Amino acid sequence: MRLSTVILPIYRWAAQGREVWRRAEQLGFHTGYTYDHLSWRSFRDGPWYGAVPTLTAAAAATERMRLGTLVTSPNFRHPVTLAKELITVDDVSDGRLTLGIGAGGTGFDATALGQEAWTPRERADRFGEFLPVLDRLLTEPVADYEGEFYSAREVRNIPGCVQRPRIPFAVAATGPRGMQLTARYGQAWVTYGDPRGPADVPVEDCPTVVSRQFDKLEIACAEIDRDPGELERVLLTGSTAERPLESLDAFVDFAGRYAEVGITEIVLHWPVADSVYAADEKVFERIATEAPAQLS
Question: In the chain, which stretches have pLDDT less than 50?
Answer without folding.
Answer: none
